[in-house]
Amino acid sequence: MVPVLFHVGSVPVRTHEFFTLVGVIAGVIVLVIESRRRGMFDRRLLWLTLGALVGGAIGARLGVAGRYLVADPSPSVAGAFVEGGKTILGGLAGAYVGVLLAKRLIGHRGHTGDLFVPAVAIAMAIGRVGCFLTEQVGTPTSLPWGISVSPDVASRIPMCPTCAPGIGMHPSFLYEIAFHAVMFALVLTWLRPRARVPGELFTIYLVAYAIFRFAVEFVRGNEVLVAGLTGPQVFLLVTGPLLALRFLAGRRTVRVAVVPVEEM
Fold first, then answer.
1. Is the distance from CB of 210 to CB of 218 less than 8 angstroms?
2. Is the pLDDT of residue 48 over 90?
3. Pairing of strands 229-230, 224-226
4. I need a surface site. Which of 140, 161, 214, 250 has the fewest CB within 10 A?
């Protein structure tokens, strides 16, 4: 566990925040490159990016606000943002809402979801490195790539009842880093040329992540909420089918649009 990555003079640079910042910077760079490649660069994208960052920051904390309110005897708004924790699923949902609100405020009516996909994928891959170095590892495993920690490290990892010397654990965050890195490569080399309607690439990415995240939760070690499922899995049971329906609706739109061309 590496809560502090390095110091700038006497100021500690926290690992999680450092990799989050690097991920955001990389994501913005990729967004600009992608928008220029598609001929869709617009300075208003910077406002949409700001909306995504603000919405993501709020959503990430709102996603675990209930747990904070229960655990803290004297909760406060400031405490919720500083000590309440964060959830990436809440962050993604908040970022989506933030972009929608920003579009309304600046009068942007174009489709931008597909532009954000490679940016989000690379930002997630980099940001999760900070999670891997600072948070709970995963559930016990006998697989050869299981990670075990020293007694000192085990005592410093929050909410990790399975962290004990000699016990191999699933490197769940490494699985997620690999997922986003692979999706980033697939989007740029294979999926992007095959997306046929605006927003399809964005939906494919979200559906793929929803399926992956639901599966990886079984080895993540998060607290079970109900019926053997964690909070993120319950959230995905509700939102996952909605994403799948959105994807199918988009494919249906393509088929309907193609019919008159074929008949001609």
1. no
2. yes
3. antiparallel
4. 161
Q: Can you give the residue range of the structural domain that contains 143?
A: 4-40+112-194
Q: What angle do CA 232, 238, 244 make, to 5 degrees?
A: 110
In Å, what is the CA distance from 247 to each residue of 76, 191, 203?
Answer: 40, 14, 6
User: Is the Cβ–Cβ distance between 163 and 149 less than 8 Å?
Assistant: yes
**How far apart, in whole angstroms, are the C-alpha atoms of residue 93 and residue 7?**
33
Confidence of residue 75 (pLDDT cuts 50, 70, 90): low
Has residue 243 been placed in a domain? no
| Number of domains comprising the chain | 1
pLDDT given for residue 74 in this prediction: 66
* 165 occurs within a structural domain: yes
In tens, the pLDDT along 125-169 reads 999 999 999 888 899 999 999 998 887 777 777 767 667 777 899
In a domain, 181, yes or no: yes
What is the predicted pLDDT for the residue at 1? 77
Q: Is residue 90 part of a domain?
A: no
